[in-house]
Amino acid sequence: MEIEKYDPEIHRALRKRMFRQNLAAFKGEGIWDLVADWSDTVNTETSTWSYRSASVAREVGSVMQYFHVIYGPNNWHPGPDICGWENEPDTGYTGVDIFTNTTDTAQNMLNNGQIVLIAPPNTCIVRPQMTNPLEPVPQISWLCPETGFYNISYEFANPRIDENGILPTIDENGNSTRARDGRQWYVDKISKGRLTNFANGFLPPETPYGFGTGLITLGKISLEKGDRINWNVDGLNTPFRDHTEVTATVTVAIL
Fold first, then answer.
1. What predicted TM-score, i.e. pTM, was given to this entire model?
2. For residues 150 and 250, is the Cβ–Cβ distance under 8 A?
3. Which residue ranges make up each domain of the chain?
């Protein structure tokens, strides 16, 4: 009997699909999912989901003001171009990015005709930007609508990056101009201005696609109306190869 080779991409896609199918069993009440609820138009201080950039202190960050094509038009194939939220007005590489491939097809980002980043279907990706020293941390924020108990699910994982497209640039002295130092992730609660960390960890550089936390659920978390749950990714000293896939879901806990 031939044993099918393990494919991490297929495995993660199936696991995410099964997770969302289980959520559907709740009949749509008391479920908030980052990808399912993704908005191209609404990003405010009072929206349930907001897309923000924060300092490394991880306070409630600033709502991103710009929504446009990520990394410029006509770079995503087969298309359409992926758009997302940024804290910079240009479409280049200088801003903090939060974007979602809302199609059912993987989208390939090309650089000089070469695939350098693959956005899987129905997946949110964030990118820190350390050239923005004030607010370099992408922050996904969920605003609690009512006091009660909630289940908070998360996953942070390496994205699909083409190995041939991310070799570090070497200067004339033989030093890499693209150091890789990994990134730190956090799941926080902010209540009445006070930050409580629920979980955190480190994603090292040079790790394979899909490597990360796995899908984890914090069960029966007590929250008050107006509390925030924030998913943060800190790129540490350099942003190179710090794209991170983020899964974020909240459900009402059944006591």
1. 0.84
2. yes
3. 9-252
